[in-house]
Amino acid sequence: MALLAQTQDSISNPALSGNLDLGKLVAGVFSLLTFLGAVLLFLYLVLGGIMWITAGGDAKKTESAGKQITNALIGFTLLAIGWAIAAVFGSILGIDILNEGIKIPTWF
Q: Among 3, 14, 70, 83, which residue has the fewest nearby CB atoms (within 10 Å)?
C-alpha cells in the first residue's frame, strides 16, 4: 500500500515547461503597473483633498494641498498618455500589449 508521500508523481516547473509566453508576461506587467499607478494616484489625490479640507484657512497648507492635487492630476495625465502610446504603438506594430500581449512569431 503506497502512501501519498511515497508516490512517484513529479512536480513540474511551469517556467521551464515551455508554456511561458513573453508577450503575456509583458502585458501582465504593464497591466499591473498601470493598475498600481492608478490606485496610488487616487490615494495621492484623496490625501491632497483631505489636506485641503483640513487646512483651516492656513495659506501654506492650502497651497501645499493644491500642489499635491495638481501633481496627482499631472500624474494621471502621464499615466493616460503612457496607456495611449502603448495602444498606438500596438496598432502600428501589430502587437497588443494592452490585452493579449506581444505575439512573437515562431518557426513551428
A: 3
Q: Do residues 30 and 86 touch, judged by C-beta distance below 8 A?
A: yes
List, in order, residues 6 or more apart from 26 with CB less than 8 Å away: 97, 101, 102
Q: What is the pLDDT of residues 48-82, one digit of tens each?
A: 999 999 998 899 999 999 999 999 999 999 999 99
The pTM score is: 0.67
Instruction: Domain count for the chain, please give it.
Output: 1
Specify the amino acid at residue 65: A
The verdict on residue 5 lying in a domain is no
Cell 498606438, residue located? 88
